[in-house]
Amino acid sequence: xxxxxxxxxxSDMPMIDAVIVQxxxxxxxxxxxxxxxxxxxxxxxxxxxxxxYKKTKHHMPxxxxxxxxxxxxxxVYRLCGDVVFYIVGSATENExxxxxxxxxxxxxxxxxxxFSPEKRLLLQNVELVLLAVDELVDGGIIFETDPVAIxxxxxxxxxxxxxxxxxSEVTLSSLASQAREAVGRSLFK
Length: 189
Fold this sequence. Notes:
Layout lengths: L17 E6 L4 E6 L8 H15 L9 E5 L2 E8 L2 E8 L4 H19 L5 H6 L1 H11 E2 L2 E2 L4 H8 L12 H21 L2
Antiparallel strand pairs: 1-2, 1-5, 3-4, 4-5, 6-7
C-alpha cells in the first residue's frame, strides 16, 4: 500500500477533504467529511465550520467562486440564494480543481432542483443533494464533475427500460412474467 502512495499513486491525485453547505447565517445544512485525520470528531468539524463561516462571511459574491486558505485547508465557496457551498481541500490542493468541483456541484444541484438552490429546497430534497455529492466525490476522490452526468446518475436515467416509467413497474412486470412462466411450466408437465 505504501508503494501505491508514492509517485503516480493516490497521493498525486487531487483530493477533497470536505463538502459543506451552510445557510447564510453559518448553520450547517449538510456536510460530508472525507479526511478523518484533519476532521476526526464532530467537535472538530463544528469548530471548522464556525471558523470557515467567520472567515468567509464578508466576501460572498454570488456570481463567482472565492478562495479562502487557513490552517491546513484551502476552501473554495460560492453563495447561491441563501446557502453557501464549500469545497475543502488540503492547503496544497490546486484551487482551480477545487473550483471545478464546486461548479460541478452547484450546477448539478441547480439542475436537480430545477431552481436556484435555497435552504428550504435543499432540505426538502436532501436525498438528491447527498446523492449528487456522492456522485461528485467518492471517499475524497473526485469522481465526476459534469452536472449532466451527475444528474443522470442521481435520477438513474438509463437504469430503467424506456417503455417502463418506474422500478415498481419493472418489478411488477418481472413478477408477472415469472408467474406466467411458472404457470406455463406447471401446466405442461
